[in-house]
Each structure stands twice: as structure tokens, then as C-alpha cells.
Amino acid sequence: MMQxxxxxxxxxxxxxxxxxQLPTPVRKPALIKVNQQLARQLGIDPDWLESDGGVKxxxxxxxxxxxxxxxxxYAGHQFGSWNPQLGDGRAVLLGEVIGSDGNRYxxxxxxxxxxxxxxxxxxxxxxxxxxxxxxxxxxxxxxxxPTTRALAAVTTGEDVYREKYLxxxxxxxxxxxxxxxxxxxxxxxxxxxxxxGLLVEHIIARHxxxxxxxxxxxxxxxxxxxxxxxSLVAKWQMAGFIHGVMNTDNMLMSGETIxxxxxxxxxxxxxxxxxxxxDQNGRYAYCNQPGIAHWNLACLGQALIPLxxxxxxxxxxxxxxxxxxxxxxxxxxxxxxxxxxxxxxTACNDDETLAKDFLNLLAKxxxxxxxxxxxxxxxxxxxSHSCTNAYFEFPPEFAPWLDRxxxxxxxxxxxxxxxxxxxxxxxxxxxPRNHIIEQAISSAYDGDFSLFHQLSDxxxxxxxxxxxxxxxxxxxxxxxxxxxxxxxx
Length: 489
Ligand code: AMP
Ligand code: MG
Hints:
Helix content: 40-55%
Bound molecules: adenosine monophosphate, magnesium ion
Number of strands: 11
Strand content: 5-15%
């Protein structure tokens, strides 16, 4: 019996799309965690995945039946600078499976060894970034944000050198595909229009089937990809998520979040927040994320020009028209997200001002972003129960704003219970806070994975009320604040 029900498609693209690459075996693999529910959804027996046989596959020590392992090629703009050739430098795509939802999913081993695209890199990942990706990508999924998933993680029994020796890890990453804006840029820059056309056909069939029947499928795909990115980044903004490395090779055509290197959630609300130690100019600060998505989509439009029309001027005009729609499309998604978070079920012209005033107050008073919205949720309900007020209360300066907010609610014909319930579904109690992730990682480096497991467990239901003594809901104390995250390469 095939342990993974592989059904591979990308590997049938022409040879120049990838290099065949087996994962490199490791010395002494040990299981950290299997995502049981995700395994089931992908038609993989979770108990088998947890067994020695499963660990052999996740560690790259055994290639499962039906796999056709490859490393894919791409290019990209990194911090705005063009890099004509990148590729999976430490990731091997084992193959694809069709999930129980009918979607096709890639299964990739990240940290699986060197490939032709490794350049100077060792093809490996330290344990810390593997755990960070596991925790944060699964938390994102639980928050309802499109994302790559974590199927399983192992330690390798080998050290990797990053300023010092660290234990190595491998994460099995699942994505609707790993095709990036940078993948299209690669073929466009090579002037390989045939390859570009084949790639777009593949993307349409896989992610935008509705575009196939339109009069200009490539243009329709571009429009849909743009809406998906707008919706994705609006969701990041709603969660206080800072990606940290929005290079065009880290933006997936499927509209899922990928690459959890230097990412972090904001504690105190400050639009200028930057965590990544390598982002010295704040290019990827929280407030710049929508603008950068727009910039990345301009790169996508540029790459698509040869396919949009035989006449270059016409093609450029078509791309520009779609691209110019981004700000409005984003704003629509953003405002609708904010309305949900503030508990409005209808749209009103003054909502933007009301929302902005709230965010300005949060910034001025250095309030915790997540807890402020959750506290609003509690105030909207009519129960006296509160799990956040043990560690969060609005400062007195909020009183006039809270009156305006309550007055806005009274214009809607909705019970307090209903409003409380809908707000509870969009305003989480717990997010993967950086200082707690750091604690989980540092205990794991000492051999203790209990905090990692606890965190993973709790973050799978981020909207549930929790007890007052729950440390993971609390913002960091002054000495716990993490100011910088490091790209875990
Ligand atoms: P990232 O910053 O993770 O998006 O990676 C940028 C590029 O560097 C990608 O092409 C990666 O495959 C490659 N890369 C990152 N880390 C390593 C590594 N340890 N070994 C080889 N290649 C790597
Ligand atoms: Mg990357």
C-alpha cells in the first residue's frame, strides 16, 4: 500500500522547471510532532506517520513509494533587488496528494539537504526555525488565514552551524502549491515565453480554474491573484501579523502565506513595527505590507505581459488597469475585516473614522493589539465573564470613543449575544507571541519540548476563552519583549 497517495503534476512540466533531487539522509532522526488532523485530511495514516517508517520519510532517510522528489527553480526580488536565479535551496518536493477537500497539495521537506540551488547554503534548517514555522503556520491556519501547513517535524541528530552549532530539524510543509511570483519572474526574465505559458496554464488549472473560460484567461488569473493577495494581507493586518520578508519569491500564487523565517505578531500596536534583524530600513514594517503586496503584484504583472496580448502596449495597459485596482480592493477587504472586529454587521460611512480613531488611541496608549480587540468583544456582550480584564483594561482616555462605538452598535438591530458571538470568532484570545515562541525554542534546545507541544495545542483554538492564569495570552513583560527576529536560514 502507498503510504502517501501521491498524484504528482509539477514533475511533468518540462525539465527546465526543476532538478531531480533526493533528500539527503540524516544521522539519527527523531519525531517531534505529527499533525494528526492534517495527515488524515491528506489521506495519510497518522499512526503510520508517527511510526519509524513515517519518521524515516519525514527525515528524508527513505523515499516513499510514488514520490518523485525535485527542487524547483525560481527567481525574485529580495528587499527590492533582483536576483535572477533562486530555487529550493533547502527544500525537496516529495510530490503531491489530493486532499479530502478535493484540493491538490504539495508535500515538501524543508531542511532536507542541499540541492543545485543551495549556492553557499548547507540545505539544512536549525531546530528553532522549524519549531517557529510549525507553531506560527498552524496558528495562522487556526486563525483562518490562508497559509502553508505543518504536517510533521523531526530532529535530525545532526548539528548545523549558524554562528554556533545548533541541533538540526526538518519540517514537512504542505501547500496548495509552492509556485511563487518569483517562479513566473524566472521564466519571464529568461524570455522563455513557452515555459511561462505552460506555467500559467498549470497555475490556472490548479488555483484559478474559473479563469480558464474567460476571454483573456491570463488577465483574469492576474485579477484573481491580486484579489487573493489583497485579502491575504488584509487578514495579516487584522491579526497584527508581520511577515518580515515579503520578497517576490516568498509570495505564493495560491494566495497562501509562506516563509515563516523572521515573522512575528505585534504585541503593542505600533504601525511602524519591524522585527526582522535584516530589514534595516523597515521595508517590510507592518504598515508597509499592503504597499509591498502592491509592489510585488506589479512584478507579477510585468512578468505576465508577454502573455496578456501580442501588442506590448495593449498588454501593458491591461496589466496596469488591473494593478491600479489594488488599493481599492485592499481597502475593501481591510475595512470589512475591521468592521467584523469592531462588531458592525452593516457598513456605515463613518466606520473608517471610527476605526482609525480606535487604532490611533491604541498606538498613543501603547495598548496590546490582540487584547484590545478581545476586550471590546467582551464589552459588546452582556455577560460579566471576562478572561482578558485580568491583564488588560482600556485606559480612561478611551471613554469617549467607547461611547461612540456603543452608539454605532445601537444603530443595528442585533442582540448583544449575537454580536458577542460574531466578534468572538474574529478576535482571538491567544496568538503566538514572540516571547513565548522564544521560550519554547530555547527549552527545546535544552531537550524539553513540553512548551512547544502546549503552545501548539492551545493555539489550535485561539478564539476560545481561557482561564485568567493562562500565561500564553499575556503580553510580554518589559524584560520579556523580543525586539528582533532572525531569518532562520
Ligand atoms: P528565504 O530567505 O528562506 O526565502 O531563502 C532565500 C533563498 O535562499 C531560497 O532560495 C532558499 O532556498 C535559499 N536558502 C535559505 N537557506 C538556505 C540553506 N540553509 N541552504 C541552502 N539554501 C538556502
Ligand atoms: Mg523563501
